[in-house]
Amino acid sequence: MSAGRTATEVVxxxxxxxxxxxxxxxxxxxxxxxxxVGMIRLVQDVQDALGVALEFADVYAAxxxxxxxxxxxxxxxxxxxxxxHRPVGGPA
Length: 92
What we know:
- The chain is an all-alpha fold.
- The chain has one domain (7-80): Orthogonal Bundle (Non-ribosomal Peptide Synthetase Peptidyl Carrier Protein, Chain A).
- The chain contains four helices and no strands.
- The chain has helices at 7-19, 36-50, 56-62, 65-80.
């Protein structure tokens, strides 16, 4: 796990590698050229870099780059037991 890397940095780098375009806040992974295999690799990149395991259904449901970054941030807080977290896939 790489300390100091933000969800935004990790997701942006992986998104660009696996979808082919740098993301914008309202970008959709699949509309940017990503594939289901690319999404699997993105999830693995996040887990490798940040130690956060995501459910594919939650990642797919996130819809946009901004929502995916928020999902990763929530998962990091939940994993660390930090304040203001909600379980990934749980109620908002």
